[in-house]
Amino acid sequence: MIEDIVKRLDPMPSKSKLIIFGGGYSGQRIASVGRRLGVKVLCSRRKKDSKGADFVFNNDEELSNDIFEGATHVLSCIPPLMNGKDPVLRKLKTQLLNVKNLKWVGYLSTTGVYGDKKGAWVDENTTPNPQQERSIRRLSCEKEWLATKLPIQILRLPGIYGPGRSAFESLLNGTTKMIDKPGQVFSRIHVDDIAGAVLFLINLYSQGNNPSVVNLADNLPTNNLKVITLAAKLAKKSLPSTIPFEIAQKTMSPMALSFWQENRKVDNHLLCKKLGYSLIYPDFRSGLKNCFSQLQ
């Protein structure tokens, strides 16, 4: 519930205006929380008739300077172009540099930039070593944002889940696969904690507590079998047979296979211990229970 996020956050500075580029799953949740905190939020979509479209941002249309009038905070949730360039900076870099009183700029990146660590922990001091093309492009965009000298903060996210995007959807439609790859773990973050952490970090940044890179992840990296097993227990559904990874990989799409080719645990010590953010859903157990409570 949005109330559970809002009650954990301090009020935003008065007359704050947040511009969000990319009003998808995470962007819309961040926008909703920001509005409940009294922030004026404008959220982009690629088409004007898309849900939650306050303005249109795409490759075809120019963006009016009026959008940035009074803007204090900007967040980009838009993935890189295929050439590794950032679509927001490609079109709007000059406009962004000319915004007066811009307090914070955020870029949602991926923990994929760390590459494969064979199950070892990574934190913000780990040198990025992306191996997947999409992660290489993300790191390129991170560097592009940092080079602008804007008040930029890079937020690296692992797997995102939440209501409507969890283990329950595939379980209920019969497409769940119980893939067993010993030693494989995935880190996760609930969409509510993305929203909560973003607004939390915005306030901290204004107080001078402003690390340039922060990992947003929960406390418990784990394998997919545990997640699916709990989802099945909550939904009272039977589980399919376990499939060894060596067999399952033969029919995986290249995208799916790429996720299983990397193995790392994402450390959230900076976010939760040093900066003091309190996770709403500290692990997949609490997060899944929330998702189940909202199933239609």
Topology at a glance:
Blueprint: H1 2-6, E1 17-21, H2 25-36, E2 40-45, E3 55-56, E4 73-76, H3 87-97, E5 104-110, E6 121-122, H4 133-147, E7 152-157, E8 159-161, H5 167-173, E9 178-180, E10 188-190, H6 191-206, E11 213-215, H7 224-235, E12 242-244, H8 245-248, H9 254-260, E13 265-266, H10 269-274, H11 284-293
Parallel strand pairs: 1-2, 1-4, 2-3, 4-5, 5-7, 6-13, 7-11, 8-10, 9-12
Helix pairs in contact: 2-6, 5-7, 7-11
How would you summarize this macromolecular structure in one to three sentences?
By secondary structure, the protein is of the alpha/beta class. Helices cover 35% and strands 17% of the residues. It has one domain: NAD(P)-binding Rossmann-like Domain (Rossmann fold).
What do these coordinates show?
The protein has 296 residues and is of the alpha/beta class. The chain has one domain (2-163, 189-218, 265-281): Rossmann fold, CATH 3.40.50. Helix content is 35%, strand content 17%. It has eleven helices and 13 strands. It has helices at 2-6, 25-36, 87-97, 133-147, 167-173, 191-206, 224-235, 245-248, 254-260, 269-274, 284-293; strands spanning 17-21, 40-45, 55-56, 73-76, 104-110, 121-122, 152-157, 159-161, 178-180, 188-190, 213-215, 242-244, 265-266. It has a seven-stranded parallel β-sheet with strand order 3-2-1-4-5-7-11, with helices on both faces. It has a two-stranded parallel sheet with strand order 6-13. Strand 4, helix 3 (87-97) and strand 5 form a beta-alpha-beta unit. The mean pLDDT is 95.
